[in-house]
SDR family oxidoreductase
Amino acid sequence: MNGRRLADKVIVVTGAARGQGAAEAAALGHEGATVIATDVSGGDGVRRLDVTRAEDWTGLAGELRERFGAVHGLVNNAGITWRARLGEVDPNDMARVQAVNVHGPLLGIQHLAPLMPPGSSVVNVGSSAALTAHYPVAYTTSKWALRGLSKTAAMELGPRGIRVNTVHPGFIETEMTASAAPAFREANIRETPLGRVGAVGEVTPLVVFLLSDESSFITGAEIPVDGGLTSHGGVKSVSDTLLAETA
Ligand SMILES: NC(=O)c1ccc[n+]([C@@H]2O[C@H](COP(=O)([O-])OP(=O)(O)OC[C@H]3O[C@@H](n4cnc5c(N)ncnc54)[C@H](O)[C@@H]3O)[C@@H](O)[C@H]2O)c1
C-alpha cells in the first residue's frame, strides 16, 4: 500500500527495531506519515528510547516540540514477555514486565499527549493474553493492566479529541514467538479458527486505520487480530472433539 492517508502526521512507534513495530513504522511511512521509530536497542533509522525511562520520553518530547511543534500519533508497541508460571514467578520479574508493558505506554501518553492536537490517535498493542487466562502470568497481568490504562486514557483524552484504541494480536510470527516452545505454536494453531498463525503484515493495516482520520469516531475500542483465537471462549477443543467423534 502506498498512499497519503497519514500525510502531515508525525507518529511515534515504540519497539520499532524489529517485529511488529518495524512493520508498523514502515506501513505508517508508506501512508505519508513522518515516523519516529524508537527502540531500547536503537539501530539504523531507529532512535534510542527505553519506554521505562521518563527521562528518555522527556528528551523525545522536547525534540519533537522543537522539530515539529506537534505529535499526531503514538503506537505503544514495545513489549516483553516472561514465561514463568504462577507457582514460580518472581515478583521482580512481574515488576520488570509491568514496567515495559504498562508503565512504558503510560509514560508515552503522559509525555506526548500534551503535544497532541484534536484528531490525534494513540494505539496500544495488547495481546490475546489480555483477553484470556494466558499461562505466562507476568505477561498476562501486564496486558490486562494495559487494557485498563487504554480505557482510562480514552476517557480522559476524549474531551481533547485524542482517541485511544487497543489492538490484540494473537500468535504473530516474530522473534518473540520464535522464542517459544514449538508446542506453543501448535497449540495456538489448534485453538485458532483460521487454523494458522498470523504475519506482521496482518496487524499493520488495522494500526494504520486507527492512526488515520478514517477511524475518527472510534475510541476506547479493543480489536483482536487473532484468527478468531479469543472469539470462542476456549471451547473450540470441545467442538473439535465432538466433530472428531462423529467423523
Ligand atoms: N508476536 C506475537 O505473537 C504477539 C502477540 C500478542 C501481542 N504481541 C505484542 O506485540 C508487541 C510487539 O511484539 P513483537 O512480537 O514484535 O516482539 P519482538 O520481541 O519481536 O519486538 C519487541 C521490540 O520491543 C523492543 N523493546 C523491548 N523492551 C523495550 C523497552 N524497554 N523500550 C523500548 N523498546 C523495547 C525490543 O527491543 C524489540 O525491538 C509487544 O507489545 C507484544 O507483547 C505480540
About this structure: The mean pLDDT is 97. The domain at 10-246 is CATH 3.40.50.720 (Rossmann fold). DSSP finds eight helices and seven strands in the chain. The first strand starts at residue 10 and ends at 13.
